[in-house]
Amino acid sequence: MPAIHSETRFDWSQPVKTGLLGGVAALLLSLIGVIEASHARPVISGIISLGQALLLIVFVLTCVAAIRRAGYARQETSSRGRLLLCGGVAGLMVSVALAALVLIGNVVNLRAVFIKASPELYHLLTLGLDTGGVLALLMSGFLLGIVVGATYLLPARLRRAIAMALGAIPLLAVLYGAFFPGRRFTLPGALALFVVLSAGSYWGGDIRSLVKQRVASLPPAGQRVYKIALWALVALLVLLLPTTGSYPSQMLDLVGLYILMGLGLNIVVGFAGLLDLGYVAFFAIGAYTQAVLTSPEIRWLGEVRLTFWEALPFSVLMATLAGVILGIPVLRMRGDYLAIVTLGFGEIIRIVALSDWLKPYIGGSNGITRIPKPVIGGWELATPGRLYYLIIAGCLLAAVIAARLKHSRLGRAWMAIREDEDVAQAMGIDLVRTKLLAFATGAAFSGLSGAIFAAMITSIYPHSFHLLVSINTLGLIIVGGMGSIPGVILGSLALVGLPEILREFSEYRLLIYGVALVYMMLVRPEGLLPEARRKLELHEAEAAE
Amino acid sequence: MALLELNNVHTYYGAIHALKGITIHVEEGEIVTLIGANGAGKSTTLNTICGILHPREGTIYLDGEPIHGLPPHEIVGRGVAQAPEGRRVFGRLNVVENLEMGAFARKDKDGIRRDMERVFALFPRLKERAKQLAGTLSGGEQQMLAIGRSLMANPRLLLLDEPSMGLAPILVEAIFETIRQINAQGTTILLVEQNALMALSVAHRGYVLETGTVVLHDTAAALRENELVRKAYLGIE
Description:
- The structure holds 2 protein chains of 2 kinds.
- By secondary structure, chain A is mainly α.
- Chain A has 22 helices and 4 strands.
- Chain A has a two-stranded antiparallel sheet. Chain A has a two-stranded antiparallel ribbon with strand order 3-4.
- In chain A, helix 1 runs antiparallel to helix 3 and helix 11 runs antiparallel to helix 12.
- Chain A is globular, with a radius of gyration of 27 Å.
- The two termini of chain A are 15 Å apart.
- By secondary structure, chain B is α/β, with parallel strands linked by helices.
- Chain B has a domain at 1-79 and 156-162 and 188-237: Rossmann fold.
- Helix content of chain B is 38%, strand content 27%.
- Chain B has 10 helices and 10 strands.
- Chain B has a 6-stranded mixed beta sheet with strand order 6-7-8-3-9-10, with helices on both faces. Chain B has a 4-stranded antiparallel beta sheet with strand order 2-1-4-5, with helices on one face.
- The radius of gyration of chain B is 17 Å and the shape is globular.
- The A-B interface holds A 409, 412-413, 415-416, 419-420, 422-432, 533-534, 536-537, 540-541, 544 and B 50, 52, 71-73, 76-77, 81-82, 84, 88, 90-93, 100-102, 104-105, 133, 135-136, 149-150, 153.
């Protein structure tokens, strides 16, 4: 709720408090080393680094929060001065926090506790001017706040367009750098991009409604052509992505494998509401089956050595069977109990794979190597770029199956179980069959993913099948939107793709995950691309309040 | 032959002996009520009939065929539907989807459409709210939906568990009037109720349960006059 403030007096406490909170955030980012680590990556070549951009984002968000909380965001011109002052004070407070760090750091050696409090960090924070730059830091924080405040004098639509474009540029710069290694945005390029993005965002709604109108006025055949053309364009883009290089392809392959797993886990957790924390087990079983059947290292099966394609059905089948086998004992369990048992199952599979007991068969800690790549008609899918097409095909198949299942009779039974198991049973739904089918389908997708994974990296070890894989998969479903198929794709891009691109953040990966999950739960519990139903439900609940 | 017959049914929750030899029967076309205090075993009896709980001893016959070993979905398939205690509608589904879920075990599309019309005729309020999410309905509407949903299975025997619970007196009257209508249309009803006065006013016969055993069995009219029932359940000295 915006604070009610008198017309005559400026309320200092509000922007100071908000500003200090922002300052704490900026301090945290600096002291754990995020800012310095991302300083190496340019957003605009020679002008601004990602680290600086992150600091700027903290500044801007703090000022925006202060202005909104104080209620200036909706004020008319009468309080123009107070609006600017509010932004300025908030920006100044962030600077004060950072300046305090620099000053203290110059007197006391903070590195005993905060190993990342390096001279380089201070150099960066003081705009390259070191101790003398403290004043510059304070000044620029204040001015930045005023500038942010001034944007509130612009029409709301223009302000939003500018904010959109400014926010998108660092993200696009990072993606550009990842897909075209060595290339980076230049100042003129970035400026042009900014103009295009803000114009697009400003007129975006108009353009969209105009296109919609035009399309709606087309004859049905024309509409179909339009739709097909649109999908063809998307498909072309998706197919062209790996041509940008080997590293981006590798990243996309991993994203694709997680999409496959996400689609499967989404059936178990999102559709049927069965919280499975040991999902990695089926991924592991798919991968190990594939490896055992295809690797020349494995001799105990005799001289039988299958190709990728011959082994694939067995891998999926084994994972599916494992899904049923895990499903049977947990049929009567619900909620937390189910989560704990499945968690245990996932660990058991990994530990068994690691054990000496099965070492003669699956290699123990030495894993299985020399797993052959898939071959299609003499064409070996040897590079990440080629494997990408196989993975895309798998994802497409899984997405179609998941979408069809969702609206089937079985899908409705899953939904009923998720909502209320007892009542579902009283409606005549066969709990045993319905639950086992959910586990089995989910496991099949995961097994497929695992089999491709084995062929992709050609050697597998027990430690590839860590609990974290299950957690990541669950995380991407939650972030994308529980039960939503497009959500799985977006969630996978965001939670698997981005961290792969931002490798300098790898040590903060879990931290960022945690922050992202907490933030999502607080601000957007339905996920990024929720199912229509979920959105409706939350929306109706809000309307009822 | 009775439509439903329970002979000496014993049901346990783990080590707790919840039903200690219940013997009741329900004839075709009747409304039979089970009344009793909390913990007397009324809901347990219903859950045992629909197969959510299994009797450790005793038999349950539907139309002369044993059903006490069957899983719940098969019992639903044989024409027994339950409106569970506490309403428990699917909150995230709308009214029509809830009703469709009630017909899950059926495949005759025409029959399902007819029964949907029947439910809407019994509860015009549900028709007005057809596209509303069930979770946002009022308590009375949710109870209507829960009963309507169980009717969608086109049951021969309808099990109603505390339909008056938590409802305003005027709604209770309306719900019981509808129960009478449903029965008049040919559905046999086994009604569990704490509101003994209401239950005995619609039922033909009644059983009084105490701590897992039947202590009294008579026609509803006779039970209303019974000294013990008047004191213990109707609150009349």
